[in-house]
Amino acid sequence: MARRRTPNHDVNDGAAPAERPSEAAAQVLIVTPSRLGRSRLVGALRGHPLVVTHASNLASAREAMRERLYDLVIAQVELPDGSGMLLAQDISDAGAGTAVMLLKQNPTLDDAVAAMRSGAVDLISPKVCGPDLVERVASALRRTSIGRRQQDRITRLRKVCRQLNTARAEVSRQVGSLCNDLVSAYNELSEQMDKVSVASEFTSLIRQELEIEDLLRTTLEYLLVKAGPTNAAVFLPDTTGEYSLGAYVNYDCSRDSAEALFDHLAGVIAPRFEHAKSVVHMEDNAELADRLGPDARWLEGNGAVVFSCHAEGDCLAVVLLFRNDRTPFAANFLNVMSVLADAFGRQLARVIHVHHRHLPKDKWGTFGGAEPDEGLAA
């Protein structure tokens, strides 16, 4: 590659440098093999704030442009190694904002069209000189200045657009996260409102029941309304710590063996879940076996829900609901079961206190071994 020259030196032929203008001078490259043509152009432009560099062919012009950014290139169409239009096309494709003026003897309309298509801003005859040439050069430099300002503005706008796009993506991410949080909060609030509503409804319903039989009946009826058709049983502890059947609902068990089944489940289910602090849901045989071991055969083919009711650390009742696992319990019902367990436990404690307030607490048991409520058996 040719040695880098100072701005005022000819790239190829070592012509004498022009007078160095001010720092704000425009950079101009003149590409023509004719010394006379170069001299005429330099002479016409002398005295104006321009830094003029010379090149005699297409290759040296391209080399000069790789070393420096020019504001204006004045190139002859007919060059020894190609056409000035190729140079104009290179500059246009590069998008550097450099204006190109082409020189051609006796240019025609077709030449002008070809020049414009190659990216040149003007096509002039080498015979043009004086004020006309200066004005056309000045016009080309104005186009360069405007184009570069526009290019700078486009560059800044693209940078701003990238920043805005990054900000938009971040805002979108945060909005999406906020929406998800709002949906979660709404679902949690809706679930809490459902629980509050059910608790208020159930508490007001059983608050008036001060007899154990009425309380068990009302509770099971309410559970059936919320759960749908299901087998259900309430197991109550006695003074010996064992559990017996307090009340039950038979939905699809054999009528002849239903009570015997529920009596047996009192000894199977209640002791295992009397200390459970939350509702236990066993959806299928696998979960039944995991929880109940060999006794899972008594509920084989069913899904079951169990919860215990406590007051002051004592288990007051264990409630079991079960039905065919092809008809699972609804999620919204399972969500409110803990509320029902708490309300039922508080009312049980209240009923015990009312019925046994004349006895020492260690003699209360539950209800002295209440008989199962036959009226609820179906």
What is the average per-residue confidence, as pLDDT, rounded to a whole number? 82
The CATH fourth-level homologous superfamily of the largest domain: Response regulator
Shape label: rod-shaped
Strands side by side in the biggest sheet: 2-1-3-6-7
CATH class of the largest domain: Alpha Beta
Termini Cα gap? 104 Å
CATH topology of the largest domain: Rossmann fold
Number of helices: 10
- State Rg: 49 Å
Keywords for this structure?
single chain; 378 residues; alpha/beta; Rossmann fold; Beta-Lactamase; 2 domains; five-stranded parallel β-sheet; five-stranded antiparallel β-sheet; 10 helices; 12 strands; 18% strand; disordered N terminus; disordered C terminus
Architecture overview:
This protein is an alpha/beta fold and 378 residues long. It folds into 2 domains: 1-192, Response regulator (Rossmann fold, 3-Layer(aba) Sandwich); 207-376, 2-Layer Sandwich (Beta-Lactamase), CATH 3.30.450.40. It contains 10 helices and 12 strands. It has helices at 35-45, 58-67, 84-94, 109-118, 130-206, 212-227, 258-268, 270-273, 285-292, 331-356; strands spanning 26-31, 50-55, 72-76, 78-79, 82-83, 99-103, 122-124, 231-237, 243-249, 280-282, 302-311, 314-324. A 5-stranded parallel sheet has the order 2-1-3-6-7, sandwiched between helices. Helix 5 (130-206) runs parallel beside helix 10 and helix 6 packs antiparallel against helix 10 (331-356). The protein is rod-shaped and about 125 Å long. Residues 1-23, 366-371 and 374-378 have low confidence and may be disordered.
